[in-house]
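Long-time lurker. I teach an intro course on protein structure, and each term I like to show students one example going from raw sequence to a predicted 3D structure in token notation. This year I'd like something fresh instead of my usual example. Would anyone be willing to generate the tokens for the chain below so I can use it in lecture? Attribution to the forum is fine with me.
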Amino acid sequence: MLIRPADVAGRVAAGSMTGNEVAVFGRYWGQELPLPRPRGEAAAAARKYYVDWILAKLDASGDLAELTAVEVQTIDTTGNYSDQAQSFFAGQAFTDGRGRNPGYSDAGMNWENVNKRILPQIIYKGHVLRREAKCTKGLYFVCPKQVYDRIRDRLGGNLHTYHPSTGTITFRSYELGPDLPAGQQRDMTLSGQFTTTVDQVALAFTSPMNLPDQNVYEAAINAALGR
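-- Reply from a regular --
Happy to contribute to a lecture. Here you go:
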């Protein structure tokens, strides 16, 4: 049973705890729990990390029995559609920065964010959580299938799989279910999952095995020079 942290004390006082309750820490469930950055003066002044959801399983006395962390990620975008939208609502054709009419927006999916922010953060959070004695199932990372596929491509196909345990990261991807008649809500369906260790992810991120052939820049320069 999922409950709000603020409800725990009342349940304990009433003697109604069963040992099957899970206190949910996250936005709109009472509070988020900050994850401190590394020690040091510069780090102390930096903004803290937050894990999206901490699920705390409680025993019949209301004490923490086990915890699991869940990170939920969609994808950032680059640019924006504001100029294009204004032209559309004004009934005008959109002229882009290259002078094309009708033109195209420069907005798009920020796939590079997977490399620059998403993977470094989950590696750091995974290392912090593996030091938690009661985090026995590791970190769960939930994302759309497209983000999941990009992460698998970035990390390569040589990661060993593990059962969820201390020090693991479980990637779960979802996508929209089949089309439905207008006015009905499409389901979210599980499309993929794999579990590996924090160390496997960190090694694959810093020492990628899916590199292009040697001397690709030399080949590109020669091609551009017509050599």
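Some talking points for your students: The chain has a mean pLDDT of 88. DSSP finds seven helices and eleven strands in the chain.
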